Structures are given as structure tokens and as C-alpha cells.
Amino acid sequence: MLTFAQPMALWAFVALALPVIAHMAYRQVTNRYLFPSLRFIKPARIPRTGRKTPTDWLLLLARVMLFAVLACLFADPYWKEPSPPDATKVGRETIIALDLSPSMSGWAGLSEAKKRIDGLLEKIEGQIGYVGFGAGILAEVAPTEEVGLVRSAIANATTGYGSGNPQTGIDRAAKLFSTGADERHLVILSDFQRS
Question: InterPro entries recorded for this chain (predicted)?
Fold first, then answer.
């Protein structure tokens, strides 16, 4: 299927009117001269208003085609293969990424994050997954309908050693999402400190 990366550029097709207007606007108006020996000849009706229809049809067609090709090229067309219907549609997926770096252990940060996750698990619809990250990935549960697996993984989560790196959790969560998901949501609970 042909699609366009820049569909707003198709407004350039309005420019197709420019060559037509240029061909219609070309005027060769005749001038009237009085000459004494022609006074007995009746004046002919010579059009003095210019042309009302386009001339040079082949040249006009070439110019219109040039503008059409330019408009299509500006729209950046590409061929997109239609995706086969996926029998494994899963609907909505949510992955909870929990920071397990040492900085979360102070000021009851981890216990507060676990309480918030418990509240979220009651509200989230669809499949739920979990990623626990610190300096690397410490625990994970792929998106599943079984909320109990996610609850137990979060309940058993403890802070690790080494500085926290949220990017590792985000990268791993992105890989855990299935290709058949209609909606993908990532919830990150972290203090975003590197200690």
C-alpha cells in the first residue's frame, strides 16, 4: 500500500493550477491602426481580450505532470506492506518499572513505591508486567493476565547494590511489550538518583 511520510505536502497539488493559469494568461492583443486607404474596408472582429482557453496542450501537459511529480516527491511516498491479521492480539499491556537502587532504601522510598504499585494494580486493565532495575535488571515478569505473579515479584523486591540506571529498566520494558498489543503503557517508579 502506498503511503506518504509527509501527507501535508500533498497540498502542493494546488500548484497544478499554475501552468494552466500561465497558459490562459498569455495574451497577444492586436493593436488597431488607422490607415487612410483602408477606410472603405469593413473592420474585422479581431479578439482583443486575449485567449480564454489554454494553448500548446502538450507543453501544458508536460508542465502539469512536472508539478504533479514534484508534489508527490515532496510528500515522501513509500510502500508499506499490509500487516497480516495477528491472531495473538492482547489488547492493553502495562509494565511497571521499579527502581531498586540503594537510594530507594532510604526514607522508606521502596515501601512507599510498593504501596503505590498495589493501588495501581487494582486500577490497571489488561496484561501487567514488571521490571525491577538498579545498575542492571534485577527482576522481571513478562506481561501476563495473572496479577498474582506481579504482586509476589514486587513484594519480594529488595534494593540492590550499585548506582541506579533508569535507562536499563526502560530499555528492558520496551523489549517485554508484545507486538500484538493495541496499547502499551510504562509506569516508572523511581527517585531518579544515580546513587
Answer: Aerotolerance_reg_N (IPR024163), Double_TM_dom (IPR011933), vWFA_dom_sf (IPR036465)
All structural domains of the chain: 2-79 (no CATH), 91-189 (3.40.50.410)
Q: Indicate if the pLDDT at residue 26 is higher than 70.
A: no
* Residue carrying the nine cell digits 479578439: 47
Is 150 strand, coil or helix?
A: helix
Do the Cβ atoms of 190 and 104 come closer than 8 Å?
A: yes
CA–CA dist 112, 129 (Å, integer): 19
Pairing of strands 77-79, 137-144: unpaired
Amino acid at 99: D
Residue 58: name the closest of 23, 11, 97, 8 by CA. 23
**Residues of the chain above pLDDT 90, percent:** 16
**Quick check: pTM over 0.70?**
no
